[in-house]
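Exercise 7. Given the encoded structure of a 118-residue chain, write a plausible sequence.
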């Protein structure tokens, strides 16, 4: 398992890509419809990742949750559609990219396979 294009990694259950809104890898399960284009992929239906917001230091979880004034962990959601290499973030996302569409970004350096030369 590793990098298969500048934008995608293979995983045990499909593919994964780097989400700049969440600053983490999101899996794209093999059970979803895939157009077979590794350069401008389309996956459907939409993907929705949710849980509690985590505190990150240098891009890594420090073991703590983001909490509201009452001490309860804050909900998190990243919901998007990937079409022809474009990521359209849905309006129910809890991050700043809600409602925006971007080109699927390249994997960050720490997720690239150095031997590929991409």
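Solution.
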């Amino acid at each position: 398992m590793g990098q298969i294009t500048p934008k995608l990694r293979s995983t045990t259950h499909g593919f994964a890509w780097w989400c700049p809104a969440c600053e983490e890898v999101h899996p794209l399960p093999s059970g979803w419809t895939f157009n077979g284009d590794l350069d401008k992929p389309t996956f459907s239906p939409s993907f929705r990742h949710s849980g509690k917001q985590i505190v990150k230091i240098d891009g890594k979880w420090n073991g703590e949750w983001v909490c509201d004034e009452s001490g309860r962990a804050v909900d998190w959601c990243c919901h998007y559609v990937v079409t022809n290499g474009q990521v359209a973030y849905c309006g129910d996302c809890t991050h700043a990219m809600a409602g925006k569409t971007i080109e699927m970004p390249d994997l960050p350096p720490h997720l690239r396979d150095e031997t590929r030369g991409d």
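Remark. The chain has a mean pLDDT of 87. Students should compare their own answers with the one above.
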